[in-house]
Design a protein that fits this description.
Elements: H1 8-19, E1 22-27, H2 33-46, E2 55-59, H3 63-79, E3 88-93, E4 101-108, E5 114-118, E6 130-135, H4 143-151, E7 159-164, H5 172-181, E8 188-192, H6 194-199, H7 202-210, H8 216-230, H9 234-239, H10 252-257, E9 259-260, E10 265-269, H11 279-299, E11 307-312, E12 320-327, E13 333-342, H12 346-358, E14 363-369, H13 374-385, E15 389-392, H14 396-412, E16 417-418, H15 421-428, E17 431-433, E18 436-438, E19 444-446, E20 449-451, H16 454-466, H17 496-509
Parallel strand pairs: 1-7, 1-8, 2-5, 2-6, 6-7, 9-16, 10-13, 11-14, 14-15
Antiparallel strand pairs: 3-4, 4-5, 11-12, 12-13, 17-18, 19-20
Helix pairs in contact: 1-2, 2-3, 11-12, 12-13, 14-16, 15-16
Length: 521
């Protein structure tokens, strides 16, 4: 049986270049992607113009890379039976430095197209038209200028393939990757870690070329050898995790620039005894908080504007934060309300959250933390409001995809925040961990108690919800005949404070509701 020539991720890259104008690949070393790129160059240049063929311009960051790439192309072209006698060498003269000539390599194919290995100079692309391949882009001296020159070729039907390992989180290559993830640019992104390559069979290919038998033990030993070789740089060199710079993921200056003094923050905390109160008393006290603190804000919301929410869950150690955003006509995500609940029982969290959501004008979407104990609240909320609400299992992958768009909104002025020091501190707590922005494990002490970046996660959830496009159904749950107008059980009798005082006194003395010690059997 014939074995496939290309590994899955190599084939995926080839297909992506056919389907997209700009393809960016962040990769591990030792994946053979530059070798696969030479096939892309040959196929593109060997194809007739009417069938999508074009010239190819390759740029590595040194002369040896250029020569190696052209040699690969010549070998592949010969294998594909295109007549290519020799690799031509010529010189390129930089207009800025006419005294210095730079060697270039050229391959002419029967189609009439050529493959040129050019020096890493933006001017070298002037007047060219075709497919540009930027190899190990992060290591070029002026990648930003190269990208500007390469993108100009798109106007007349050219394409751009950018391939690189990382070289720090502030490098223009990583900035480009983050811009793609934040949807600022409509480019196609592929990510290939060492483990992705191993899963697709790269070590098997290595064994074939070296004439040795593949074994799982041999693959594990090879992987361990690579990790040992790169040591502290293994994350960056092998797993597409750029080495972090110092400082917060979102600087204080950006946070302050997006602050709106008029955004209300409402906080409600419960002591340990509150969870032991009778159910009707807990309901009544939570209802009183909703009506006195939340209802005036909710009633003031614009009924014509869509609203979304995000939620980060906490029970005893961390906060639950509910973040309400309005999606304005100009697409600005304007924060309208933040609710923080500390040490609040599950049922009262459900009561308060649903009180808010029932009153959101044009409620469009929401995302909720469904990790750990948060799964219950997320589940009952999805049951009540349907597919507009998504239960999110927080993971590194989720942070990787959702944090860059939120940061882009900070940078572009696309959202607003409350003027609240503790919320600002939560956002400043975001750090790059293994190349992904998230809240570190350490907790901080705020004026209202310990915090764990809870507001930052709720904000990210809300912003992600504002970008979602859930399906909506014309469904409304029937209200229980025993419930009040807002859906809570009817309660009659004493006032709330008298009921709470009596209940706490009863529990502290061990008397039941009738004044007798112990309870009825």
């Amino acid at each position: 049986m014939n074995k496939p020539v290309f590994l899955r991720y190599q084939s995926e890259t080839m297909q992506a270049v056919r389907d997209h104008k700009v393809v960016v690949v962040e990769k591990s070393r030792r994946t053979g992607l530059s070798w696969a790129a030479s096939f892309i160059a040959d196929i593109t240049a060997a194809t007739a113009r009417g069938a999508g063929g074009m010239d190819v311009f390759y740029m590595g960051y040194n002369l040896e890379m250029a020569r190696e790439f052209i040699d690969y192309c010549a070998e592949h072209a010969a294998a594909m039976q295109d007549v290519v006698a020799t690799v031509h060498e010529s010189f390129w003269r930089d207009p800025d430095h006419p005294e210095k000539d730079t060697k270039v390599f050229r391959l002419d194919l029967a189609s009439g197209h050529k493959i040129l290995a050019l020096p890493s100079r933006a001017r070298a692309l002037r007047g060219m038209q075709g497919l540009v391949i930027l190899d190990e882009a992060a290591f070029h001296d002026d990648l930003e200028e190269l990208l500007k020159a390469a993108m100009a070729l798109l106007i007349w039907g050219g394409k751009v393939l950018i391939i690189s390992t990382h070289d720090g989180d502030q490098n223009p290559f990583n900035v480009l990757v983050q811009d793609i993830r934040s949807k600022r640019v409509p480019y196609h992104l592929i990510r290939i870690t060492l483990d992705d390559a191993l899963a697709d069979g790269v070590y098997r290919k290595i064994c074939e070329t070296q004439g040795i038998a593949w074994t799982q033990a041999g693959q594990d030993a090879w992987r361990a050898e690579m990790l040992a070789f790169y040591r502290d740089n293994a994350d960056e060199e092998l797993f597409c995790i750029p080495n972090p710079s110092t400082g917060a993921y979102i600087p204080l200056a950006l946070i302050e620039a997006r602050t709106d003094q008029g955004v209300p923050v409402r906080r409600w905390g419960c002591d340990a005894a509150f969870a032991l109160l009778a159910e009707r008393l807990r309901i009544m006290e939570a209802q009183a908080f909703c009506e006195s603190e939340l209802l005036p804000v909710l009633d003031a919301l614009d009924p014509k504007t869509p609203h979304v929410f995000g939620e980060d869950f906490g029970r005893s150690g961390d906060l639950t934060v509910i973040w309400i955003m309005a999606v304005e006509a100009n697409t600005t995500r304007r924060t309208r309300l933040v609710v923080e609940l500390r040490n609040t029982p599950f049922e009262q969290q459900r009561q308060i959250l649903h009180y808010v959501l029932d009153r959101l004008p044009r409620f469009r979407a929401g995302k909720m933390d469904a990790s750990g104990n948060g799964a219950y609240l997320a589940e009952v909320t999805v049951q009540r409001y349907g597919v507009r609400v998504e239960a999110v299992k927080l993971s590194e992958g989720w942070y990787r995809e959702e944090m860059p768009p939120m940061k882009a909104a900070f940078e572009d002025g696309g959202l607003t925040l409350p003027a609240d020091r503790e919320i600002h501190d939560d956002i400043r707590a975001l750090k790059l961990v293994r190349g992904v922005a998230r809240v570190p494990d350490q907790r901080s002490e705020g004026g209202s108690g310990k915090r764990h970046g809870d507001a930052a996660v709720a904000l990210a959830m809300a912003y992600a919800a504002s970008r979602a496009e859930p399906e909506e159904y014309g469904y409304r749950a029937a209200r229980s005949p025993y419930a009040t107008a807002d859906g809570t059980p009817a309660v009659h009798g004493w006032g709330v404070q008298e009921e709470i005082a009596h209940e706490r006194a009863r529990r502290s003395t061990g008397l039941d509701s009738f004044g007798l010690r112990g309870g009825l059997s």
